[in-house]
Amino acid sequence: MKRTAWVAMAAGGGALVLAAALSVRLVAILGDEPARARVPLVAPAPAPVKPTPAPPPVPMAPADLTVRRVLDVPEPMRIGDWRWDEAGVPAGPTVITVDLAAGMLSIFRGGWEIGTAAIVYGGDTKPTPLGTFPITQKDAHHISNLYHAEMPYMQRLTNDGVTIHGTEGIQSGWATHGCVGVPVAFARKLFGATKLGDPVIVTSGKRLAMGQAIVKG
């Protein structure tokens, strides 16, 4: 029965009056809206856990870069000559040395010389720079952006274009625009034996002997 009917019958008797009064109180408390369905409580999602950062790498001890073996080259090498022998050489850090005064390049693995070649290098107007340079790029089929020349098995040393690369028909008396040119067959082997970051040490007149440190400090 609706609330208006209960109120209209209030004069009819005490029971009706009491019932009407109770009805009015309930309506005043609960209102006319239907009872709402209970919504189950949902626990909030846990905050995301941040991953624990990895500890910094522990610096490694300096590699032993003492010369342990040099290749047996009985005769002076001329432009175009090269030697390669890595049979039985253990794994180890790779270092390339270039001596401009001698016109020679050598590659050492763990202190063992595994390859050497006579080179051409930069002339007076564009000399090959001295210093230690990490290999920053390798491209087996590189073409120079500046000179539009093929530079097979290119290994970049500087951002301004100094590289080690193969040179077809390499001959005595040639000069480069600062690069170190080696026979293509040797450049292919050199390319396969190095990785990015390997150091190339370019000097003029510094020759290495057995037991001498390749890199000091």
Strand content: 15-25%
Task: Please identify the structural class as seen in this structure.
Answer: alpha+beta
Number of separate strands = 10
What's the mean pLDDT score? 78
Order of helices and strands: HHEEEEEEEEEHE
Strand order of the largest sheet: 1-4-3-2-10-5
Number of helices, where a helix is a run of at least 4 consecutive DSSP H or I residues: 3
Question: What percentage of residues falls in helices of 4 or more residues?
Answer: 10-25%
Low-confidence stretches: 1-36, 57-63
Q: How many angstroms does the end-to-end distance come to?
A: 102 Å
Largest sheet: 6 strands, mixed
Q: What shape does the CA trace take? A: globular
- Structural Rg: 42 Å
Describe this structure in words.
Residues 1-36 and 57-63 have low confidence and may be disordered. Helices cover 15% and strands 24% of the residues. Strands 1-4-3-2-10-5 form a six-stranded mixed beta sheet, covered by helices on one side. 24% of the residues are buried. It has helices at 3-8, 14-30, 184-193; strands spanning 82-84, 94-99, 104-109, 112-118, 131-134, 137-143, 150-156, 163-166, 180-182, 199-203. It is of the alpha+beta class and 217 residues long. It has three helices and ten strands; from the N terminus they run ααβββββββββαβ.
